[in-house]
Amino acid sequence: AVILGIESSCDETSAAICIDGEIKSNIIASQAIHANYGGVVPELASRAHQQHIIPTVDQAVQHAKIHKNDINAVAFTRGPGLLGSLLVGTSFAKSFALARQIPLMEVNHMQAHILAHFIEDPKPAFPFLCLTVSGGHTQIVLVKDYFEMELLGQTLDDAAGEAFDKTAKILNLPYPGGPLIDKYAKEGNANAFKLPEPQISDLNFSFSGLKTAILYMVQGEEKKNPNFLSERMADVCASVQSRIVSILLNKVKKAAKETGVKQVAIAGGVSANSGLRQALLDMGTRYGWEVFIPKFEYCTDNAAMIAIAGYQKYLKSDFVGQDVAPLARMHV
Ligand code: ATP
Ligand code: MG
Ligand code: FE
Q1: pLDDT (tens digit per residue) in 130-151
Q2: Which of 29, 188, 326, 328 could form a disulfide with 86 if both were Cys (CB 3.0 to 4.6 A apart)?
Q3: Ordered DSSP codes for 150-214
Q4: 58 appears as a binding residue in the annotation
Q5: Quick one: residue 77, left, alpha or beta (phi over 0 = left, psi -120 to 50 = alpha)?
Q6: What is the rounded radius of gyration, in angstroms, for the C-alpha atoms of the chain?
C-alpha cells in the first residue's frame, strides 16, 4: 500500500510517502520566521502551514517517484499540538481522502515520535521503554504494542526541550536553542558549574527549578564579570546539558529497574542531543540494555513517523471518518 503521511502539529510542515512499510520520501518545510520572536507564534505557524502544505506534498510525491493517483490512504497528525496548525494538516488530509475516495488514518503525534523506531532496522521488540523528549513533552513510556502505550512518568512543569530553549534564552542564544547548546557543550567542561537535580521520588520530571538555578547563576556571575557569557558559554552549555541528561537518564535507569525491561529507546527532538545519545549508549553498555537511538531526521518533527504509524493502522483497517477533528491535547 502507498500511504501519504502529513505532519503539521507545530512549526514543521511535513509530508512523507510510505510504500509497504518503507519510507520513500520525507519532506520537511521548517518555519524560520519564529526565530524573530524567540518561540513559535501559533498564528504565524498556521499561516505558514497553509502556504507550505501543497508544495510539500507535491515534493514528497515527486521524490518518491510516484503519482498522486497511486496513493491508497492518508495518515495525518490529529494531535497533540497547536490547534491552528493541526487544522491545516487535518483539513488537507480529509479533503485529499474525500476527493480520492481513499481511507483516512488519524495519528497521535507522541505515539508517532516513538513509532519512528519502526522506520528502519534495528527495530525494538515489544515491550520496550521509550524516553520521549521534545519541545512540549517529556515522558517515559512502556510501549507494549504499536498503539498500546503506558505512561510511566512525565514532566510536572517544563519539557526537556523547553529546558534547553529557555536556557538558551537566558544565554541570549536564538530559538530553538537546543541544537546550539549541544554545539557549544562539545567544547566545554560539564563540571564547571554545579546545577541542582530535583528530588522527585517517582518517575516524573521537573525542570523549572533548574531553569531558575541557571538564571541566578548567570546573573550572579555577570555581576562579577560582565563578559561572563561570552567567555564561559561553552562551560555553561556543557554543565546545563550534562544536568538535563542526568535528570533524564536517572529516571530511565529507575524505570528499567522497576519494569525489568532491557530495551530502551529515546525519541523526540531532544533525542537529537549528542550528549544524551552518548550517555544513553554508555548506560546501555553498563546495564546490559539494548539501546535504540533514532536517525537525526526522525528525531524532530517529520511526516515519516506519521506515515509509518499510519501504515500500522492501515494493516488493521483502523480508519476514521470525515467527522474527525484535531485535538490540542492527546495522551500517548
Ligand atoms: P512535541 O513533540 O512535544 O509536540 P515539538 O514537536 O515542538 O513538541 P520536536 O520537534 O520533537 O518538538 O522537538 C523540538 C525540540 O527539540 C526543541 O525544544 C529543540 O530545542 C530540541 N532539540 C532539537 N535538537 C536538539 C539538540 N541537538 N539538543 C537539544 N535539544 C534539541
Ligand atoms: Mg519544531
Ligand atoms: Fe514533536
Answers
A1: 999 999 999 999 999 999 999 9
A2: 326
A3: EEEEEBSSS-HHHHHHHHHHHTTPPSS-HHHHHHHHTTS-TTSS-------SSS-B--HHHHHHH
A4: no
A5: beta
A6: 20
What residues flank ion ligand 2 with Cβ within 5 A?
Answer: 10-12
Q: Is the pLDDT of residue 246 over 90?
A: yes
**What's the grid cell of residue 38?**
524567540
Question: DSSP characters for 169-187?
Answer: HHTTPPSS-HHHHHHHHTT
Share of the chain above pLDDT 90, in %: 98
By residue count, the chain amounts to 332
For the segment 164-174, what is each residue's pLDDT rounded down to a tens digit? 999 999 999 99
Q: Is 209 annotated as a binding residue?
A: no
**Residue found under cell 555553561:** 236
113 Cα: distance to centroid of ligand 3 (angstroms) = 7
Atom of ligand 1 nearest to the CA of 299: 11
164, 165, 305, best to mutate for ligand 1 pocket (most atoms within 8 Å of CB): 164
Say which amino acid occupies 48. A
Q: Which long-range CB contacts under 8 A does 98-101 form with residues at least 24 apart?
A: 98/322, 100/68, 100/69, 100/71
Is the reported ipTM for this assembly greater than 0.90? yes
Q: 176 CA distance to ligand 2 centroid (A)?
A: 8
Residue of 134, 278, 330 with the most ligand 1 atoms within 8 Å of its CB, for mutation? 134
Q: Tell me the average pLDDT across 241-268.
A: 98
Instruction: List ligand 1's pocket residues with C-beta within 6 A.
Output: 9-10, 81, 109, 113, 134-137, 161, 164-165, 176-179, 182, 268-270, 272-273, 300-301
Nearest in space to 11 (alpha carbons), one of 41, 36, 38: 41
Exposure string for 291-323, b = 16+ CB within 10 A, e = fewer: bbbbeeebbbbbbbbbbbbbbbbbeeeeebeee
Q: What pTM was computed for the model?
A: 0.96
Distance 215 CA to ligand 2 centre (A): 24
